[in-house]
Design a protein that fits this description.
About 30% of the residues lie in helices and about 30% in strands. The chain is α+β, with helices and mostly antiparallel strands and about 575 residues long. The strands form eight sheets. Strands 3, 7, 8, 9, 10, 11, 12, 21 and 24 form a nine-stranded mixed beta sheet that branches. It has a five-stranded mixed beta sheet with strand order 16-14-15-17-20. A five-stranded mixed beta sheet has the order 28-27-29-30-31, sandwiched between helices. The chain binds zinc ion.
Length: about 575
C-alpha cells in the first residue's frame, strides 16, 4: 500500500486520559480511536494487527482439531436463565428488551449457546468435540480504562470442549494449554501459566496466562524456587508459626476507650497477629461474620469461590449495630449465635487472642478461637503478601502485576446439564458430557504486545502481527530514480508475499522516519539519491535501529529472508 493514499492519522500527543503505554501508542499511531469509554473503533492499521492476532489464534486452534463457528452476539434471556447466570451475572451483563417485550442479553461468553447446539450430539462416538469462534463480547465494566485492556466491547476467541469423561476433558484441556503456549510464543508474549480462580464460570480447575506488565490488573504470586505461580485470588503461602499468648479459662473484658483500629489496639499492647478481625458482610441477603487475623487482608474472591455466593457486600453501620449491638472497632464473634461465621484457616488453634466485645470501647482478651467462637466454616480467606514463604518450597514469594492474556477452565457438567445435553455411552446409557471453556481476548492480546514491545519512539511490533512488515521510505519523492527504485522494490516484495508499505508522501525525511518508528514497522528501507549513486539502499531494523548499507540488487532477497524468519519466530 502507498502511504500517501492510506488513512494513518498519527498524532503528536496522546489523549490526556490515556495512562497505559499501549493506549497512548495505539491512539498516537493511528491504530484506533475511542467512540466512548470502553468502545474503540479499529482504524485500518489497528484492524490489520487485530486480524493478524486473530489469524495466529485461528491457526493454532485449527491445529488441535478445533472447528470454527460464529454464534450470535445477542441472546434470548432463556438460555441464561437455564444456567442461572441471568441472575448471577448481575450488572456485568448488558440487557435489553425488544419491541415485543422479550428480554435479551448481549453475550459475555457463549457456554450456554454452544451447549444448546451440543444437544445435537447423540453418541459417545461423536465425542470429543472442540468448537470455537472469534466473536464480539459485551461486558458492562464499571470502570473501562487502559485502552484495549479493559473494555466493554471486545473480540474474543472462545472455545469449548465436549468430552464423555474427566480423562477426555484432561486431554482437551492440555491440548488448549499447549496451543495457548504456542499462540503466545508466536505473539512474542512471555505468558506465564498460573493457577487461577474460576470466578463466575465455576468448574474444577483453571489456568490463566499472565504477561507481566505494570498496566495489568491482576497480581500474581510467583515462586522463584519451585516455579509455583498463582493469581493472588487463589494463592496460598506458608505462615511462620505464631506462639500463642497465655490465656485463662475464659475471655476477659477490658476497657478500650477510643480504640477503634487494629493499629490503635496494637499500640495498646495487642499486636495484630494476636488480634481477631471481625468483618460483617451481607452475603446473598444474610448478615454474616468473617474472621481473620488482625494483620491479614480479606480476599473476597476466595470467599466467593469457596461459597458460591453471588452478592457479597460490606454491611452498613445500621445493619452491623442491629446484628451485634456495637459499631466497627469493637466487634467480635465470641458468643455470637444466629449468624453464619466464617473463619480464616490461620485462626485455627489460636488462643490468647484479642477481639471486640460487641460493646463500644470494650474488647476481650484471652480468646481461644475454637473454644469461644462458634465457627461454622473454616476457609482460606486471606490475601497473601509479598515476601511470605512458598507453601511448597519455602522460598519468598514475589508478587507481580500482570495482564491476563488468556484463561482456560475445566467447567465440568454445569452447563451441559443446564442445557440438557446427553449422549449415549458404549453401554447405551445416557451420559452428560463434561465441558471445558477457553478464552483469549484478541484486542487485549494486541494491547499486551504493545505494552511489552515499545521504546521511546513508538511501537516495535513482532513480525508475526506487524500491520506492515516492511516500509520503503523514499527520502526525495521528486527524485525520479529514487521513486523508480522504490516502485520496483515495492512490486518485487509484493510479488514475494511481503506486507509492504511504500512511504511516497512528500515531506521531510525526519517526519517520515518518526512516523515509521511510531507505528512500529519491523523493517525500513531508506531510498535516497546519495545511496543510489552507488546502487545502495539503507536497511534498518526497528528493534535495534542500526543502519546497514545493502546493494539494491540484494535487498529484496535479504528482506524476504528476514520477514520469513521473523514470521515463524516462536513456532
Ligand atoms: Zn516454591
Amino acid at each position: 500500500m502507498r502511504w500517501s493514499s492510506l488513512f494513518i492519522p498519527t498524532l503528536r500527543d496522546a489523549p490526556a486520559e490515556a495512562e497505559a503505554v499501549s493506549h497512548r501508542l495505539l491512539v498516537r499511531g493511528g491504530f484506533m480511536r475511542q467512540l466512548q469509554s470502553g468502545h474503540y473503533s479499529m482504524l485500518p492499521l489497528g484492524w490489520r494487527v487485530h486480524q493478524k492476532v486473530g489469524e495466529v489464534i485461528r491457526q493454532e486452534m485449527d491445529a488441535i482439531g478445533a472447528q470454527e463457528f460464529l454464534l450470535p452476539a445477542m441472546h434470548p434471556a432463556s438460555v441464561w436463565q437455564a444456567s442461572g447466570r441471568w441472575e448471577s451475572m448481575g450488572d456485568e451483563m448488558f440487557r435489553l428488551t425488544d419491541r415485543k417485550g422479550a428480554d435479551l442479553a448481549l453475550g459475555m461468553t457463549h457456554e450456554e449457546v454452544f451447549a444448546g447446539i451440543a444437544n445435537e450430539l447423540n453418541s459417545y462416538r461423536d465425542l470429543p468435540q472442540l468448537w470455537y469462534q472469534i466473536q464480539w463480547k459485551f461486558r458492562d465494566e464499571p470502570r473501562p480504562k487502559s485502552g484495549l485492556l479493559r473494555v466493554r466491547e471486545f473480540a474474543m476467541k472462545d472455545s469449548y470442549s465436549f468430552d464423555l469423561d474427566d480423562a477426555g476433558l484432561d486431554v482437551s484441556f492440555d491440548a488448549h494449554h499447549d496451543a495457548y503456549q504456542r499462540i503466545f510464543r508466536r505473539l512474542d508474549l512471555d505468558a506465564l501459566p498460573v493457577e487461577a480462580s474460576s470466578g463466575a464460570m465455576g468448574g474444577s480447575a483453571s489456568i490463566e496466562f499472565m504477561v507481566e506488565s505494570s498496566a495489568g490488573e491482576d497480581d500474581v504470586a510467583i515462586c522463584g524456587g519451585c516455579g509455583y505461580s498463582a493469581n493472588v485470588e487463589r494463592a496460598t503461602s506458608a505462615l511462620p508459626k505464631v506462639e500463642n499468648r497465655p490465656g485463662g479459662d475464659a475471655p476477659e473484658r477490658f476497657a478500650t476507650p477510643g480504640i477503634r483500629t487494629i493499629a490503635a489496639l496494637s499500640e495498646a499492647g495487642h499486636p495484630p497477629e494476636h488480634q481477631v478481625k471481625t468483618l460483617v458482610y451481607r452475603v446473598d441477603g444474610a448478615i454474616t461474620l468473617i474472621l481473620l487475623r488482625g494483620d491479614h487482608p480479606f480476599l473476597e474472591q476466595k470467599f466467593v469461590d469457596a461459597t458460591g455466593a453471588v452478592e457479597v457486600v460490606p454491611a452498613d453501620g445500621d445493619e452491623i449495630r442491629a446484628a451485634l449491638g456495637a459499631s466497627p472497632g469493637s466487634l467480635g464473634a465470641v458468643g455470637v449465635t444466629g449468624l453464619t461465621i466464617y473463619a480464616d484457616e490461620s485462626l485455627r488453634s489460636r488462643s490468647g487472642m484479642t477481639t471486640g466485645a460487641n460493646e463500644d470501647d470494650v474488647h476481650l482478651e484471652g480468646v481461644d478461637v475454637e473454644r469461644d467462637v462458634a465457627v461454622d466454616h473454616w476457609l482460606d480467606l486471606r490475601s497473601i503478601l509479598a515476601g511470605e514463604a512458598c507453601a511448597s518450597c519455602g522460598v519468598a514469594l514475589r508478587i507481580a502485576r500482570c495482564i491476563e492474556a488468556g484463561h482456560i477452565f475445566k467447567l465440568g457438567r454445569r452447563y451441559s446439564e443446564a442445557m440438557d445435553v446427553t449422549v449415549l455411552d458404549a453401554d447405551g446409557v445416557n451420559r452428560v458430557p463434561t465441558m471445558g471453556s477457553y478464552g483469549i481476548g484478541v484486542g487485549r492480546a494486541m494491547a499486551a504486545v504493545a505494552e511489552t514491545h515499545h521504546d521511546e519512539n513508538g511501537l516495535v511490533w513482532p513480525m508475526s502481527i506487524a500491520p506492515y512488515e516492511v516500509v520503503l521510505t523514499v527520502v526525495k519523492v521528486d527524485h525520479e530514480e529514487s521513486m523508480g527504485c522504490a516502485e520496483r522494490l515495492y512490486d518485487e516484495l509484493r510479488a514475494a508475499g511481503v506486507d509492504v508499505l511504500l512511504d511516497d508522501r512528500a515531506g521531510r525525511p525526519g517526519v517520515k522516519f518518526a512516523d515509521a518508528e511510531l507505528i512500529g514497522i519491523p523493517l525500513r528501507v531508506t531510498i535516497g539519491p546519495r545511496g543510489l549513486e552507488n546502487s545502495i539502499v539503507e536497511l534498518t531494523a526497528r528493534t535495534d535501529g542500526e543502519r546497514h548499507d545493502v546493494p539494491v540488487a540484494d535487498v529484496v532477497a535479504r528482506l524476504v529472508d528476514l520477514v520469513v524468519t521473523g514470521r515463524s519466530a516462536g513456532r
